[in-house]
Design a protein that fits this description.
The complex is a heterodimer. Chain A is an all-alpha fold. Chain A has 13 helices and no strands. The mean pLDDT of chain A is 85. Chain B has one domain: MetI-like fold (Orthogonal Bundle), CATH 1.10.3720. In chain B, 46% of the residues are buried. The chains are: A mainly alpha, B mainly alpha.
Chain lengths: 313, 296
Amino acid sequence: MTARIVRRLFATVAVMAVVAFVVFSLLYLTPGDPAAVIAGDIATDEDIRRIHERLGLDEPFLVRFGGWLWALLHGDLGTSIFTNLPVTQLIAQRVEPTVSLTLSTLVVAILIAVPLGVLAAAKAGTWLDRTVMSFSVLGFSVPVFVIAYALILSFAVELDWLPVQGYSNLHDGLWEWLRHLILPSIALGTVYVALIARMTRASMLDVLAQDYIRTASAKGLAPNQVLIRHALKNAAIPVITIIGMGVALLISGAIVTETVFALPGIGRLTVDAILRRDYPIIQGVILIFSAVYVLVNLAVDLSYVFFDPRIRY
Amino acid sequence: MDTTTLAAPIATAESVSPTWRRFREAFRRHPTALIGGAILIVMIAMAIFAPWLHTIDPQQVFPIKRLRPPSATSWFGTDMLGRDVYSRAIYGARVSLVVGLAVALLSTLLGLAIGLVTGYLRQLDAVVMRIMDGLMSIPSVLLAIALMALTKASMGNVIVAITLAEVPRVVRLVRSLVLTLREQPYVEAAIASGTTLPLILVRHILPNIVAPLLVQGTYVCGSAMITEAILSFIGAGTPPNIPSWGNIMAESRSLVQIASYLIIFPGICLSLTVLAVNLLGDGMRDALDPRLARRM
């Protein structure tokens, strides 16, 4: 079992190495002079030369990659071109809003989506099922910023119940913090709820067709008990998997949501970095988000043991 | 089932292929797929015939007519430069549809090529799949952002960036299909009778991949449209001189409280188009994979 876990960890390290390599080599693979693009249209030759030096575009590829990787392993993501501050510091300053937004969305979305999916599967074919499934198709189709603006226009501008934009730190009061997160979380969570609900329903329908469910019902267990204890637990693995994979949606959605709601998080940092062509920040953000994504999915893999004792690591 | 066996000769008499019959049946069972197809056709027609749909030059600036709400003369209102939002929204359909279709086509073709080869050549498989795993660990919008940040904003670059971000998922699908198909008895029989590898791939493997790939292509199209809009919205997409739905919304970001129509109309267009593509995809999936149809 330990050997399996160790092997899985090694695979994770390998994937992260590939990610690091890809993120680093993007700078080299893009046609044209990235320094000229980063410097912008009004840059002087001196500016371009400075960026060349900063990004090490004149040195051999492997030398630069080695140096960059070594620094990365020591927690150094480089220096921002625009502000001259360490990228790690810039990201650290922005962590709270992003973590608040994504975590609250994650928790609320799971709490809504799983019961919805279970209900839709239990009442398969009824209007309830069809409503949930229609909602799910809609959730996939309406982009996060369209939902965000619809929410702002109705609940913040028209009804004036919630703030239009902005963020309030957690240590400035729980209620204010929560009030500023409600609309962003709904906007960000819609597609995630759609995804999880759909998978929960599909997985539950598979399990509900199994013999042991009929046995459980036949021996007189209450329908809810059958649904939760026998069906849901056995239907859990695909659901957990999609929850892990959906984190990618949360991450890219967070960038957009933070832009719409003016939340001073990592997403906002990224968008500002794009406008300023501050490539070290973009690199750093991609690396960190990808690492989070990989680690979440590692945790998901390891959690299979809990839901299905037949799986052994 | 007796009814199907009875129905079969009639269908052959009409010389309708089984795939077409399944499509027709699925569309009958899911009228939503038909609605999706209809919306999509309207959108495509709108994109093609944009200049004749009572539009004016979407880039033409009228400083005196700034921020006019929707009226009889400008149906969707005018933006902060006095440009006609209706014309911009109609022309915007071109960007979304071209990007969506181009990405769907390119990424399925590229994914098909890589997936076929890696599914068959074990030596290559390990290396390529590790690279694909790495690429898939980067959320696709982020990968597209990284690529766009390094190139000049243009529609071609947007298409390339989104394609590169979507390809790994297609490769994974094709490879897994190839891995199952190559164990099929008819493939073994083909090998035993001395069929060459390229011929096996083209004649025996490829036809069985087309259907699932078509469905995947539809979903890629929908997600590429959303990604394009996201890229444009955060300033890493199509250049500002091309009116795309994402651009229109991005330019109006700070005006949402005073001129909400600037956001609402392009938002509805985009959502409706993606919805149409997804509905069509669901219908096709049901038609081509009856087993999945019951579940999803």
